[in-house]
Amino acid sequence: MSPSKVFIGIEPVHFAQEGLGVEPAVWEDGRRVPLDRRHFEWWYTDAELDDGSVIVVVFGIKPFFDTHFPVAPLVAVEYRPPEGKSIQAVYQTRNYRKKAHFASDKCDIRIGESSMTGDLKHYSITVKTKKISLQLELENLLKPWRFGNGYMYFKEKDALKKFAWFPAVPLAKVTGTITVKGTKHEITGKGYHDHNWGNADPSNLFHHWYWCRGHVGKYSVIAGELVTHKRFGYSRHPYILMMTKEEIITRETAKITVERSLPVRHPRTRKLVNNQLKFGYSDEQRTFDLLIERQKDLVVRNLMLFNSPHLFFHQIGKNPWYHRFYGKMTLNLEELGHAKPQKEQLESSVIYELMYFGRNYQIAP
After folding, report:
1. Bridge-based pairing state of the strands 151-156 and 321-335
2. CATH top-level class for 1-200?
3. Residue 325, class by beta-carbon neighbours within 10 Å (0-12 exposed, 13-18 middle, 19+ buried)?
4. Domain 1-200 matches domain 202-365 at the CATH topology level
5. Residue 363 pLDDT > 60, yes or no?
6. CA separation for the pair 98, 303 (Å, rounded)
7. Exposure string (b/e) for 270-279, b if CB count within 10 Å is 16 or more?
């Protein structure tokens, strides 16, 4: 199928058909899909703590990519200390009418005794499970953002499939407490929150994607590349956001390129991993390149095992793996429009992921 059958909503008509304005609104972080078996939706938050620990919290209407079975809300939490193994906990209920609530006018979620509320500026998260309990406060330090209208569209015959992504909190100040195995800790750090939803299983839309975020100098960066499923032609869709506290620097209509290099087979997953990614950006005011270099694995997870068991039969013929890496980020920036172009080079650490849905032999270009 021609890559033209896949497109991102950047035209005015795309905003209008989703009822969206140019600037994100509070209701956009509320529930966006019907509570039925044909849709998925989740709210993701992570926090990198000052002591080197990492917390990940996900609220969802059902197990992650499920578009086959009834609503079964869940809260999943992972705590990874600086040393030692990660601790994971999940709470799930099938009685969503009594034990869960998903508001559509704002982010206001309750699943069992856990909850998440927010207004794009401030978020409060409470998680209560047998292994882990936590209370997080997120203060958004930047503007909420979306690439175009936030939707990626897939045309197939008479159907229009949608995959949506809304980084509501690109960078946050995080405070709170966490209790693990009966021991309570005060925590501080930086965090991130985004929101995904759609009407099709992403493993039927994508072969794989790279996604990264980091902070270097005064700049915060989110970048990635989505590679579609074989039946959509392995089309490649890069995106990049660079912003400061004062402004969003990048534009969707600018030229964005991605160069991949140093490919290796991951020793555990056997997936093709590029040890270097180079994102390029250019418009009338500036050009820059962002080099991502892989240094070590943080998480390697087989999603066939991680997802709910009832999804197994819908994953036959697939081999989905999630990889999270730690690495080095180098930004080379050139500001144009001056008598003499202004250049700077900045370096920092970066966390990035490779979500690989395709089978091992399906290698996209």
Report:
1. unpaired
2. mainly beta
3. buried
4. yes
5. no
6. 29
7. ebbbbeebbb
Structure tokens at 294: 């892989």
> What CATH superfamily classification does 202-365 receive?
AttH-like domain (2.40.370.10)
Q: Quick check: pTM over 0.85?
A: yes
Domain segments of the chain: what residues? 1-200, 202-365
pLDDT for 285 beyond 90: no
Q: How many angstroms separate the CA atoms of 317 and 357, rounded?
A: 10
- The four Cα atoms 161, 119, 219, 9 give a dihedral, to 10 degrees, of 20
Q: How confident is the model at residue 1 (pLDDT cuts 50, 70, 90)?
A: very low
